[in-house]
Amino acid sequence: MTYLAKPPFVRLARGIVLAALSVSAATLAWSHGDVVPQSVDTTTLPQLGKKWLDANPYSKGEGHKEALRIGTSAYNQNCARCHGLEAISGGMSPDLRKLDADCTGLADEAKKDMCFAEMSEFFAGTVRRGRVRDGRVYMPPFENILTQEAVWAIKTYLETRREP
Ligand code: HEC
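Above: inputs. Below: predicted complex with heme C.
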């Protein structure tokens, strides 16, 4: 496990605590569980390089099974405290089972794939940058904490939890 990103995150965490005082959702989200994001060992996955891909390379085929294993544990360590165990949201944070809900019902396969790709890009962007509005951290950024492989592994896990 590496803690390269710890010092900046500690500063960030302090910001979150301040923000939490005025955001009840965030207060609840951070009042239980570990506040330090966990880096994830992704060396057993097909490596993706530095450039971020547009879509989840582990959705099927090589690496899918291992991505699901790693993604399940990475989700539990980094996301579940806000987005809920097994991705079932308690209502404080968006329910990530519904992330692809606009796509799953599309009949046209080409349109469906395009829709999934758009959601993937949105997903990776959100996880990397987090959600900060008006100086309040609703969700911390995971860039430099999670590798690209870890982010797509989490997406792979969430794809098995999809609900329309
Ligand atoms: C501190 C709590 C917290 C943690 C930890 C957290 N999130 Fe979030 N997340 C939120 C909140 C709150 C929002 C909605 C923010 C807003 O209103 O803009 C959100 C939004 C999102 C969205 C956008 C959903 C949408 O429908 O707009 C995605 C995707 C997401 N989170 C994924 C993740 C993943 C994956 C992880 C773990 C790597 C994670 N989050 C960790 C609180 C958190």
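Residues 29-30, 78-79, 81-83, 93-94, 96, 99, 123, 126-127, 131, 138-139, 142, 154 surround heme C (CB under 6 Å).
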